[in-house]
């Protein structure tokens, strides 16, 4: 498998750090379905065989404005979102300030600001394809506790319905026609199946298999 060549810090995706974009991002970016949140949480608990930590910690890397990490607030004692964009983080702080166990800190995937063996679960939503993955994996190994879990997931485009007609093919024609997408976006198209594996016991679950669907009323 070929490693993603991009990084959060090499300029490929710094457009997400723009202040005006951050305001739109928190409104329009999809958040993971509850089925996925439950799958990640259950997988972690199953591996511990009932020996849950006294204080559980989840870290969401590349959290943006927090669309993913806030959903784990009811399952973990502490949830921390990490991102390189202060503007994205500020949006998250404002939107989720009512969740007292959720906080946001500035940092990068390749230099996680956490002590060794201090984190139970690390999640990454629609961001891993930008990381220097081998450096990120080393960071994960350092901060995860024994029995910890790394959960990497994403989403790919939409199936909008207008007048009972699915516009998916039209969207894909536009996507192909624009032609300026960086190489890392190919990982989204393949459902992350080509990302380098982090561990020998990695588990891959497709959207269809896991029932991971985000839907909105028309």
Automatic annotation (TrEMBL):
Protein family (similarity comment): Belongs to the methyltransferase superfamily.
Annotated source species: Hirondellea gigas
Tagged with keyword Methyltransferase: yes
MF-aspect GO terms: S-adenosylmethionine-dependent methyltransferase activity
GO biological process, one term: methylation
SUPFAM superfamilies: S-adenosyl-L-methionine-dependent methyltransferases (SSF53335)
This protein's name: Methyltransferase DDB_G0268948-like
Organism superkingdom: Eukaryota
Record CDD domains: AdoMet_MTases
Methyltransferase found in the keyword field: yes
